[in-house]
Amino acid sequence: MKSQGPGKDETVFTVGRDDDGARLDVYLAGRVAGLSRRGAGRMAQEGRVRVGEAVAKKGHVVRCGDRVELLAAPPSWGEGVLPDHDVAETLCVVYADSQIVVIDKPSGIPSVPLQPGELGSLAGGVAAAFPECAAIGRRFGDGGLVNRLDTATSGLVLVARSLGVHRGLVELQRSGLIAKSYFALVENTGEALPAVIDCPLAPFGPRGRLMGPDPGGLEARTEVRVVQERGRWRLLEVTIHKGVRHQIRAHLAGVGHPIAGDAFYGGASPKGLARLFLHAFRIIIPENDAVLAVTAQSPLPPQLSRIVE
Fold first, then answer.
1. Which residues pair with 157 in a beta bridge?
2. Where are the CATH 3.30.2350.10 domain residues in the chain?
3. What are the tens digits of pLDDT across the range 258-294?
4. Model pTM?
5. Which of the residues 21, 143, 160, 247 has an alpha carbon 20 to 30 A from that of 95?
6. CATH topology of domain 7-70
7. Distance (Å, rounded) from C-alpha 73 to C-alpha 43?
């Protein structure tokens, strides 16, 4: 619960019941518009955040009723993400109408910038190609993106062209009504894969960079189907309807089948694979109050196709 001031200008917060036990950097990233978790952590490490009467570090655990104060303003996002015309020139637009755009993101490019003024993100490219998207999102810097992909993951990203459409699609996603399907390659251990992995996930490891099973974590459900088995490898079709950070990667690793090329979660790599074998190939949006029904698809990138062949 916020204690005073509107939106991004707030500097003092009171921790509510729902955030009891959260890390300070996670809490601030969820409360300050335009502030990433990394940016919140940097502010804390620089001594610019106080909890109660004491300056607190980013790993501090906040409790219900704590008073959290920013001792200096967070970086400003101005009118939104900085347009990146270099990225815009390389955008692959799969679908576009007056309400949404669907972009095919290549592996190696982050979905959003981590701080104001940072170039090289998909959101920056979208802001240059579709200027109306620059200031749209749950946080400044989203650039209209409704879903995000990890930097190493390729495939479809849904973008809203107005704030109202964005809100409608985010709510649709939270309700589990947008289906996002991926191709993933895993080792064929001979063991059967579960058709559904239903396991809450929470951050763990150094700086909370990884996600793992945690009864108190965020709800996460992943549907798994084996598409093809060839020798040592299995090609999977994996579908999610909401999405937690690293959900597919963490879920498959948790059942003993980390994705090929995933160094974070222990995935081996077939010869010739120089990236994570995870590609968002289909997104299905049902007709709703925000947009018309849309199904968009993206083929496997050439490098991944060669691995399968």
1. 103
2. 85-175, 181-280
3. 999 999 999 999 999 999 999 999 999 998 887 889 9
4. 0.77
5. 247
6. 3.10.290
7. 9
Single-letter amino acid code for the residue at 232: R
CATH 3.10.290.10 in the chain, residues?
A: 7-70
Report the 3 state secondary structure along the chain.
Answer: CECCCCHHHCCEEECCHHHCCCEHHHHHHCCCCCCCHHHHHHHHHCCCEEECCEECCCCCECCCCCEEEECCCCCCCCCCCCCCHHHHCCCCEEEECCCEEEEEECCCCCCCCCCCCCCCCHHHHHHHHCHHHCCCCCCCCCCCECCCCCCCCEEEEEEECCHHHHHHHHHHHHCCCCEEEEEEEEECCCCCCCCEEECCEEEECHHHCEEEECCCCECCEEEEEEEEEECCEEEEEEEECCCCCCHHHHHHHHCCCCECCCCCCCCCCCCCCCCCCEEEEEEEECCCCCCCCEEEECCCCHHHHHHHC
Distances (CA, A) of 205 to 48, 56, 211, 216, 241: 25, 20, 8, 16, 26
Distance from the first to the final alpha carbon of the chain:
53
**Catalytic positions:** 150
Q: Which residues pair with 233 in a beta bridge?
A: 187, 230
Query: Which residues of the chain register pLDDT less than 70?
Result: 1-10, 33-34, 73-79
CATH no., domain 181-280 = 3.30.2350.10
Choices 3.40.50.1000, 2.102.10.10, 3.40.50.720, 3.30.2350.10: CATH for 85-175: 3.30.2350.10
Q: Are 151 and 108 a contacting pair, CB within 8 Å?
A: yes
Q: Identify any residues that bridge with 179 across adjacent strands, giving them in sequence order.
A: 284
